[in-house]
Amino acid sequence: MVNPFAISWLWRGFKGRSVTFALLFASFVLGWSLSAEVGRLLTWLGVHWLYGMILPGFFFMWLAKREERFIPDEAKRTLYARGLIIASIVLAIVINQIRH
């Protein structure tokens, strides 16, 4: 089954020029969950498990809203977002070919 969030992240990465959502899509395609890693870090820091599950979502929403401050040039954001998406898809195909 396809994760509906991944399709949304792909759309926001390409159309919305969002590096944050492109990074989330790339991590999903490559099988590495950034949200789980942030949650593990919060749990390791002693944050209650419920907040460890909820806070990564708020963190990525906050990061997506602040993207224009971190990368002010829209052309660079577009290039980075699309580069991340395309590179992750190509890398996933290469890894699949190597395994078979």
Features:
100 residues, 6 helices, single chain, 0% strand, mainly alpha
Average predicted local confidence, pLDDT? 83
Oligomeric state: single chain
Query: How would you sum up the global shape?
Result: flat
Describe the biggest sheet? none
Number of domains: 1
Beta percentage is under 5%
How many beta-strand runs?
0
Cα radius of gyration in angstroms: 15 Å
- Straight-line distance between termini: 22 Å
The helicity comes to: over 70%
- SS-based class: mainly alpha
- Which sequence of SSEs, written as H and E, runs from N to C? HHHHHH
> Low-confidence runs (pLDDT<50, min 5 residues)?
none
User: How many DSSP helices?
Assistant: 6
Brief write-up:
The protein has 100 residues and is mostly helical. The chain has helices at residues 4-14, 19-30, 34-44, 49-65, 67-70, 74-99. It has one domain.
How would you sum up this structure, described in words?
This protein has 100 residues and is mainly α. The protein has one domain (4-99). It is 81% helix and 0% strand. The chain has helices spanning 4-14, 19-30, 34-44, 49-65, 67-70, 74-99. Helix 1 (4-14) crosses helix 2 (19-30). The two termini are 22 Å apart.
What order do the helices and strands come in, and which of them pair?
Elements: H1 4-14, H2 19-30, H3 34-44, H4 49-65, H5 67-70, H6 74-99
Helix pairs in contact: 1-2, 2-6, 3-4
